[in-house]
Design a protein that fits this description.
Layout lengths: L4 H25 L15 E7 L5 H9 L31 E8 L5 E4 L11 E4 L4 H36 L1
Antiparallel strand pairs: 1-2, 3-4
Helix pairs in contact: 1-3
């Protein structure tokens, strides 16, 4: 891992969590939207994350140590059988996350009886998006916490770099 590896990993997480927060905000903003250009009520959206690279600890450790996994390795200790190289070798940065897509929730809309609503059907029911404000707030709090944790990791890395530069003075 290079000197800025933590920043690379945390930057990918910051971007992903920003997208997640935007999608949650869009879901909350459209919780009562009964009319869309596609027709029908707004559909809730989900963000799909994917780990960048091989994120398993064993592969990360082996990558950092310059080793090769033996075929048929079934446990953590068996992977050490072919270690070579030094611990300080620069290698590929493990970790990171990418947003692979934003998908629409195909759940059925909620039907509420409101015969005065302009989008009410002949039976007086209106189709509303199946969006639970509590679920959205939980997702938003998760995105906020994750964003904060990654921002703290960037700050810690920045302090480490600053300390390293102070040693060189």
């Amino acid at each position: 891992m290079n000197l800025f590896g933590v920043m690379d990993v945390s930057a990918s997480a910051l971007k992903a969590e920003r997208v997640r927060a935007e999608v949650v905000a869009s879901n909350m903003a459209n919780a009562e939207t009964t009319r869309t250009p596609e027709g029908g009520p707004y559909q809730r959206h989900h963000v799909v994350f994917e780990a960048e690279g091989d994120a398993s600890f064993q592969h990360s450790l082996m990558s950092q140590m310059g080793g090769v996994l033996s075929d048929g390795a079934d446990g953590f200790g068996s992977g050490f059988s072919s270690l070579s190289g030094d611990v300080t070798a620069a290698g590929e940065t493990p970790g990171g996350v990418a947003v692979t897509g934003v998908i629409a929730d195909n759940s059925a809309p909620l039907r509420r009886y409101d015969p005065q609503h302009p989008d009410a059907g002949p039976d007086g029911f209106v189709a509303y998006p199946d969006i639970n404000p509590l679920t959205e707030m939980t997702d938003l709090m998760g995105a906020t916490r994750s964003y904060g944790m990654n921002a703290s990791a960037v700050q810690a890395e920045k302090n480490m770099v600053t300390s390293s530069l102070d040693i060189l003075k």
